[in-house]
Design goal:
- This protein is of the alpha/beta class.
- A seven-stranded mixed β-sheet has the order 4-10-9-8-7-5-6, with helices on both faces. The protein has a four-stranded mixed β-sheet with strand order 1-2-3-13. Strands 11-12-14 form a three-stranded antiparallel β-sheet.
- Strand 8, helix 12 and strand 9 form a beta-alpha-beta unit.
- The longest helix has 22 residues.
- It is globular and about 70 Å long.
- Bound molecules: pyridoxal-5'-phosphate (PLP).
- Pyridoxal-5'-phosphate binds next to helix 6.
- This is Aminotransferase class III-fold pyridoxal phosphate-dependent enzyme.
Length: 454
């Protein structure tokens, strides 16, 4: 910490920061986070913050879990690096795959590993091409995802990400990446439209998109069970059942991006379980290793994998690999993370404290600037409005949530602020009293926001 603090505010830093205003970085520099303990992080000025969003919605076991440090050190001493591929594999990496096979809702799954969530999603988009080619579906090359969902930073996954403003900078999306609605009932419902009618309209629009593009050209749809990057938009009544039926009708595969929702974030181990979704493949990352080291996974249904095996037969091998597709130290840490989930009954803990978290957020519902509060497991959102009745959204979009995030930072709370919402997703190990403290800091920041907006 002392050493980190000695790194003084570097203006015009060499480091290029993602999702940051690059010009501002030249004159202001980034907020420098130097240490962590439990649900708290400390900046180089020595100020503590509750990491209310687990950094990028990652941290499960907090910022100071010694067991994970020890697991890394053990593996570093045994075999610090070796790639798994070319007919060789490291036991710790194989063990992680076995563990994931037992854990995930896809029975008898096969597991490919990667380093990041983007990589897992990108690999899956590549694998589906082979699987489709081997199963007489070669004409299917397009991918559907949802507006406002984030799926990664590579060319393909950034194309899949449903944020047109982000696409514009890079000349994306690539051809074949299609986007359908995020089913945001709060913001998109027509006057008097109930949830069931809204769902029918959303799915009707998806059907139109599929028909327009040609169902025989579409390989898959990739979606998060619930999307925090979109502001935690809960699936409206009948949405998942209807969506799955629709895709099945057209032979379009469904893949779940569980990079955030995997590992207890929504309560059960996987978001697919929370919402009764039956995807053919699932991608995982982030909390899988407590986010201590980069490791990700593509979980594939047996039939899907069998097609890859056929492709391998045809070419004399599976022409896919990654130097760090299953780094031994990352795998050992992920394995220990999953063991800790079991030993400490992290899912039981989340189930016990989620109601307090939900109640803490719901208590802000009457505030004049709050239009909606929502939560599932340990993800929550508070959506701001400029006026409640008749409802008026903040203009420009995001002004209140951005301002709130700045006040929250002053009050010692780090949040994320997608669109007009503020999202909270604290480390899963948060205690009841820490939830109370987080909500108290939230309340103070809300008070500051109200004074500013007056
Ligand atoms: N998918 C989802 C749902 C994500 O939220 C993210 C990252 O935030 C990714 C994929 C990409 O993961 P990574 O940043 O590890 O590449």
């Amino acid at each position: 910490m002392a050493e980190a603090a000695a790194i003084k505010n570097i203006l015009d830093p060499a480091l290029v920061l993602g999702f940051s205003n690059l010009r501002e970085m030249r004159t202001v520099g980034p907020h420098r986070i130097a240490a962590g303990h439990g649900i708290y992080v400390t900046d180089t000025d020595g100020k503590d913050y509750i990491e209310g969003a687990s950094c990028f919605y990652c941290s499960a076991l907090g910022f100071s879990e010694e067991e994970l440090v020890e697991a890394a050190v053990r593996q570093f001493r045994e075999l610090p690096f070796y790639s798994s591929g070319l007919h060789r594999a490291v036991p710790a990496v194989m063990e992680l795959a076995e563990k994931l096979r037992d854990l995930t809702p896809i029975k008898n799954a096969k597991i490919a590993l990667g380093a990041t969530g983007s990589e897992a999603n990108d690999f899956l988009l590549k694998f589906v091409r082979a699987a489709d080619r081997m199963t007489g579906r070669s004409g299917r090359w397009k991918v559907i995802s949802r507006l406002r969902s984030y799926h990664g930073g590579t060319l393909a996954t950034a194309s899949m990400t449903g944020v047109p403003e982000s696409h514009a900078q890079f000349g994306l999306p690539l051809p074949g990446f299609l986007h359908t609605h995020q089913p945001d009932y709060f913001n998109m419902a027509l006057p008097g439209e109930d949830e069931a009618a809204f769902t029918a309209r959303m799915l009707g629009d998806l059907r139109d998109l599929i028909e327009r593009e040609g169902p025989e050209t579409i390989a898959c749809m990739v979606a998060e069970p619930v999307s925090l990057s979109a502001g935690l938009v809960p699936p409206p009544e009948g949405y998942w059942a209807g969506l799955q039926a629709l895709l099945a009708e057209y032979g379009i595969r469904l893949f779940a991006d569980e990079v955030i929702t995997g590992f207890g974030r929504t309560g059960p181990m996987f978001g697919s379980e929370t919402y009764g979704i039956d995807p053919e493949c699932i991608t995982l990352a982030k909390a899988m290793s407590g986010a201590y080291l980069p490791v990700s996974a593509v979980v594939m249904a047996p039939d899907f994998y069998d097609a890859l095996e056929l492709a391998s037969d045809e070419a004399g091998g599976f022409t896919h690999a990654g130097t760090y597709a299953g780094h031994p130290v990352c795998a050992a840490v992920a394995l220990r993370t999953i063991e800790l989930f079991e030993e400490r009954d992290i899912l039981g803990h989340v189930a016990r404290i989620a109601p307090r978290f939900a109640a803490g957020l719901a208590a802000f519902a009457d505030h004049p600037l709050v239009g909606d509060t929502r939560s599932v497991g340990l993800c929550g959102a508070v959506e701001f409005v400029a006026a409640k009745a008749p409802r008026r959204a903040p203009q420009p979009e995001g002004i209140l949530s951005k301002k709130f995030a700045a006040f929250a930072k002053d009050r010692g709370l780090i949040v994320r602020m997608p669109y007009n919402s503020v999202c909270l997703a604290p480390p899963l190990v948060i205690t009841e009293s820490e939830i109370d403290e987080m909500c108290a800091r939230f309340g103070r920041a809300l008070h500051d926001l109200e004074a500013w907006a007056a």
